[in-house]
Design brief:
binds acetyl coenzyme *A, binds (2S)-2-hydroxybutanedioic acid, globular, ATP citrate synthase, 264 residues, single chain, mainly alpha
């Protein structure tokens, strides 16, 4: 029989060899004619399946809520400085994206990992938070520079309200809220942040949709798909900040001398 020469690349998410491009087997004409949105396309290209409408709507809400958070946070600051140094769109965008990581925007996967592990093991919020403290690890998804117990992040509340109305189960969300109640009893800045809300709600989405096996959920959490939501969303805002600086013809940024402590 025929022997297939081994290929150098394997791809399972898209194919453009036919009459029309396909995402996970769905032809572009269906995608356009049936009004697929960004959430549907993420479902196809990241999760390789069509997810129910409430799931794709949730993904779109995450993207809308995380698109921008003003000029003062790490990512936008880097993008603004780079755009003002006369660099192009891609350079300005990636300089902002490079700040996304464990402290800023990139704690979604770790919050899903740690909260899942703790909740599945039935650890009490006290046991979970204190075991993290003993290991010297900050609880991913907890803490925010500007939000406090009495002034919580509206985005978190909106995500949770949507999930309560549309998700079949919000077990992980409720666990995260219990952990937040415990951490807030320790310090007023230890709120559940937007990364923690998305990480734990995505666990509920994956488990409750009935579209993923337990093994697939473990793989998604293990590989770390979820920071991708923040990267994708925040690119929208970072591109906006680049255009804003160019439009305003802003000059090269120079940090004020008086704002530096020259210490020995
Ligand atoms: N778990 C446990 N303790 C914490 C946490 C946490 N997640 N966050 C802060 N603390 C404690 C610190 O240990 C510190 O106490 P200490 O000075 O006695 O050590 C105190 O709270 C204040 O910490 P700061 O560093 O001043 O807090 P800051 O407001 O600068 O940090 C940050 C904010 C970086 C988000 C922090 O809370 C953190 O590392 N959280 C975990 C990572 C995370 O979730 N990042 C995503 C944020 S959301 C987003 O970027 C879109
Ligand atoms: C954001 O969405 O950029 C913020 O939540 C980050 C922050 O540090 O406030």
């Amino acid at each position: 029989g025929k022997v297939r020469a081994p290929t150098h690349i394997v791809c399972t998410i898209s194919d453009v060899r036919g009459e029309e491009p396909c995402y996970a087997g769905v032809p572009m004409s269906s995608i356009v004619e049936q009004g697929y949105g960004v959430g549907d396309v993420i479902s196809l290209l990241w999760f390789k399946r069509s997810l129910p409408r409430y799931c794709t709507h949730f993904i779109e809400i995450c993207i809308v809520l995380c698109a921008d958070h003003g000029p003062c946070i790490s990512g936008a600051h880097n993008t603004i400085v780079t755009a003002r140094a006369g660099k192009d769109l891609v350079s300005s965008l990636v300089s902002g994206l490079l700040t996304i990581g464990p402290r800023f925007g990139g704690a979604i996967d770790d919050s899903a990992r740690y909260f899942k592990d703790a909740c599945d093991k039935n650890l009490t919020p006290y046991e979970f938070a204190e075991s993290m403290k003993k290991k010297g690890i900050r609880v991913p998804g907890i803490g925010n520079r500007t939000k406090k117990g009495g002034n919580k992040d509206k985005r978190v509340e909106l995500l949770q309200r949507f999930a309560r109305t549309h998700f079949p189960s919000v077990k992980y969300m409720e666990y995260a809220m219990q952990v937040e109640a415990y951490t807030l009893s320790k310090a007023n800045n230890l709120v559940l942040n937007v990364d923690g809300a998305i990480g734990t709600l995505f666990l509920d989405l994956l488990a409750g949709s009935g579209m993923f096996t337990k093994q697939e959920i473990d793989e998604i959490v293990e590989i770390g798909y979820l920071n991708g939501l923040f990267v994708l969303a925040r690119s929208i805002g970072l591109i906006g900040h680049t255009f804003d600086q160019k439009r305003l013809k802003q000059l090269l940024y120079h940090h004020p001398w008086e704002d530096v402590l020259y210490a020995k």
